[in-house]
Amino acid sequence: MRGRFIVFEGIDGSGKTTQARLLANRLEENGASVVMTAEPTELPTGKALRAALGGKAKKSECEMAVLFVEDRIAHNIAPVGGIEELLESGAWVICDRYYYSTLAYQGQSTDYEWVKSMNLRCPQIRKPDLCIYVDLLPEQSLERISKGRETVEIYENIETLSKVREQFLSVIRDLGETDNICIVDGYRGVDEISEDIYAIVSLLG
Ligand code: ADP
Ligand code: TYD
Predict the structure, then answer these.
(1) By alpha-carbon position, which residue is closest to atom 5 of ligand 2?
(2) Which residues' Cβ are closer than 6 Å to ligand 1?
(3) C or N terminus of the chain, fewer CB within 10 Å?
């Protein structure tokens, strides 16, 4: 099988990272070359975002939208470890968050059409082969987050995540015709969700 570009989306704490890892392991067991990656990235553009997300650097939501786009372009075109380069080499690229997140988080806090056009009309931002949206209620995801770690990022509160989840569902309706998006119910056991996801990925051929 040739490499594919798969992204995981969902609100904070919905189980994206857990499921991305399980999918990567399973593909590797079947002989695929797989690279896991994430946004914000580890590139300088991503580090600036991490400072803002941790509350250390104050940025407006419009500035955040632009910074995420800049980070995404850098992620696509990086000569070593960039999405384009990895796909070119035949690897599967599994990315934890992508432009659906900007459309959901900054799309609800700024102007949706502006955020959408920056991401979807940019020639250096590739469309994924598949987006897996792990759906969970904010009450459930925040409970999981509170068990797992002590620091809280700027969007990790019930008010924001409730708006973001509604916006994710609206983005999925909006992009349903142009993007390949599957919703999986994240309020189940880790293995059951993983089986569902593998079945969806197997359909990519
Ligand atoms: P995200 O990447 O979306 O923030 P994580 O995969 O890091 O989510 O999961 C957040 C927390 O919830 C972690 O502590 C993880 O172990 C736990 N978790 C993940 N999936 C499940 C699940 N299906 N049921 C219960 N807890 C889960
Ligand atoms: P992440 O580390 O994936 O958070 P989590 O593991 O808790 O789900 O992402 C960091 C934060 O950045 C998260 O609150 C969502 C936010 N974000 C945006 O607001 N817009 C974006 O485009 C991206 C990629 C992330």
Answers:
(1) 12
(2) 10, 12-18, 144, 148, 189-190, 193
(3) C
The residues that bridge with 8 in the sheet, in sequence order, are 96, 132
SS (H, E, C) 153-186: CCCCCHHHHHHHHHHHHHHHHHHCCCCCEEEEEC
* Ramachandran quadrant class, 81 (left: phi over 0; alpha: psi -120 to 50; beta: rest): left
pLDDT tens digits, one per residue of 58-107: 999 999 999 999 999 999 999 999 999 999 999 999 999 999 999 999 99
- State the CB neighbour count (10 A cutoff) for residue 4: 19
pTM: predicted TM-score of the whole model, two decimal places:
0.97
For 7-25, give one letter per residue: b (16+ CB within 10 A) or e. Answer: bbbbbbbbbbbbbbebbbe
Q: How far apart are CA 138 and CA 22, in angstroms?
A: 23
Phi then psi dihedrals of residue 94, to 5 deg? -115, 115
